[in-house]
Amino acid sequence: MTSPAGDAPLIVAVPSKGRLQEQTLAFFERSGLVIRQARGSRDYFGTIAGVPGAEVQFRSASEIAREVGAGNVHLAVTGLDLLHETLGAAQEELAPGARLDDTAPAPAHLVTKLGFGHANVVVAVPQAWLDVVSMADLADVAARFRLKHHRPMRVATKYVSLTRRFLTGHGVSDYLIVESPGATEGAPAAGTAELIVDITSTGRTLADNGLKVVDDATMMRSEACLVAATGAAWSQTARVAARTMLTRIAADARARGVRRIEASVAGADRFAAIAANRFGATLPLPVEGDRLVLLCPAKAIHDLASWLIEEGARTVAVSSVDYVFEAENRLYDALARRIG
To answer: Pathway membership of this protein (predicted)?
Structure first.
């Protein structure tokens, strides 16, 4: 971490266009973090209502990853695939079984996944390659391709770093990467490559272009994520603003994962302890008489409600919760440990 310059603000980078921008702004607004652009939607700078000391910059998704690496922003929303492609070039080979889904390459810190922008980074080959089902098959084909055509097998991709790490880690050594800034799925049909590495959500576009995903060749399952730059200059102002933001984000995430359950049952104290052990429920408020109020994981509400009825409750009311603010902020605490 570099030394902070005075009382510098928190810089938050968000996507500047497209569906990813819309989903990012909706995510922040849902968390009580409304981003305002003084000159309208074409303004590349903004502020966050209720968070003094925070400034928003609108940038392209690929540019955001570079800015995180350079420490020019503090928090950012971008795809996990772009982070690994941009910042992970010096990382080790991706051997079979290696997973990148839940980590961010240094100097980025993964704060939280955002639940949108899902896509898989995969190796896809022509459907006509019937003998290629696994990466081991592809390694054999690469060796035979050189003998037959007197040149290496060509791989079209915009993920140059990820492709090298993955192919090398899976024993494919004889290949040539052809950089493809767009429409990568059309490269084999156009004759500019034999196979591709690209992102896909459903696989439909690949199939429409006569391609198939190699069975064990999903490099990573990417999605949009909120990341922090550990190498940025974190002033006290930036830290306070970050804590405010992450407190609201954590409160929203907690609320979406639970439901409020209220019941009147004799021996409420005893049932609170049992509900915690059996159903993962928590007690947000002290028990008052026979009144029992619980926060229960959404997936367990029906079982918990049925159990309370069986134990003597006449009525069990279940409701959603807007926010759950808690003294412990795991998102910010994890960030604070990284930035010191």
So the answer is: Amino-acid biosynthesis; L-histidine biosynthesis; L-histidine from 5-phospho-alpha-D-ribose 1-diphosphate: step 1/9
